[in-house]
Structures are given as C-alpha cells and as structure tokens.
C-alpha cells in the first residue's frame, strides 16, 4: 500500500488552506515575523501560499499553473538581508499553526516541520543581497514523506 501525498494526508486543498490561514495569522501576530508583512502583502496571500504548498506537497499545480514560478516566489523573499531571528520565529509560528488546526498525526507534523525549516533556511533566503541575483529558471521543490524529492 502506498502512502498518500503530504497534500492528501493534510486533507487536500481545504486542509492546506486551513494551515496557511493559521500560519499567516500567527505570523501577523508575531512582533518580529510581522515585519515581513509591514510594507503590505497580496490581499489573497493565504490562498496563494496554500496553492504553493499544495503543489510542493504533492497536490495539483495550483501555484505554477496560474500564479507564478519558483523564481518569482524566491524573488519576493530576496534582497532583504539575513534575518535569522525572523526565520526561527516563522518556524515557531508554523509549528503553532499545526497546533491551531489540531494536526495530531506526529509523523505528518514532523515532515511538514522539516519542510518549513528547509524552505525557510534554504530556498527563500538564498539571495539576501538582491532580487536581481535570483535565476529565472528555478524549479519548485517537491517534498515527500522522505524529504526533498528528486
């Protein structure tokens, strides 16, 4: 028997959206993480974030199919210097968001935590000096029960 994708295990689009909403609420409430949103953000940020996570976690291509590319996502997060405290607090907000939605499956929590740590400390901080440094052909990373796929 094959294991479901992370996307399916979380409850599909609805489950991923609930997690994105919970994380965004936690991020806005955190005095350090909220700085990342202080200059404004897309009015449908949580839906866009959920679409990205759906795709990254084995679901349909909701983000790349209609909203953007990996390069555009990385570019949005680039050129802001190094912000390790914010990154660590964003990770804590993610863990709290899993509590907020009542995610009880400890293995799923571990894998999603590992994903969020990896993406927060690797992909979205890879170009701290300038958005212009981001290559135009980045491929969206996919995450599975075993970590980074491919």
What topology emerges from the helices and strands here?
Layout: H1 6-9, H2 12-29, H3 45-56, H4 70-76, H5 84-100, H6 106-123, E1 142-144, E2 147-149
Antiparallel strand pairs: 1-2
| Dominant shape | globular
Strand arrangement, largest sheet? Answer: 1-2
The CATH superfamily is identified as Globins
What's the number of structural domains? 1
Distance between the termini: 21 Å
Q: Percent of residues in helical segments?
A: 40-55%
Give the H and E element order: HHHHHHEE
DSSP summary, beta strand count: 2
Q: Class, according to the CATH hierarchy?
A: Mainly Alpha
Helical region count? 6
Quote the average pLDDT: 92
User: Approximately what portion of the residues adopt beta-strand conformation?
Assistant: under 5%
| Radius of gyration from the alpha-carbon trace, in angstroms | 15 Å
| Structural class estimated from helices and strands | mainly alpha
Task: Give the low-confidence spans.
Answer: none
Protein name: Oxidoreductase
InterPro entries: Globin-like_sf, Globin/Proto, Hemoglobin_trunc
GO molecular function, one term: heme binding
Keywords: Heme, Iron, Metal-binding, Transport
């Amino acid at each position: 028997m094959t294991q479901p994708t992370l996307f399916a295990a979380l409850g599909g689009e609805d489950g991923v959206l609930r997690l994105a909403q919970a994380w965004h609420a936690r991020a806005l409430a955190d005095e350090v993480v909220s700085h990342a949103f202080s200059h404004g953000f897309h009015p449908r940020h949580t839906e866009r974030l959920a679409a990205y996570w759906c795709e990254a976690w084995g679901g349909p291509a909701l983000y790349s199919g209609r909203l953007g590319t990996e390069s555009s996502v990385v570019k949005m997060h680039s050129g802001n210097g190094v912000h390790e405290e914010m990154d660590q607090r964003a990770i804590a907000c993610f863990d709290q968001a899993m509590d907020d939605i009542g995610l009880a499956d400890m293995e799923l929590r571990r894998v999603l935590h590992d994903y969020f740590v990896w993406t927060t400390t690797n992909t979205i901080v890879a170009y701290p000096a300038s958005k212009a440094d981001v290559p135009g052909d980045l491929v969206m990373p996919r995450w599975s029960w075993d970590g980074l796929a491919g």
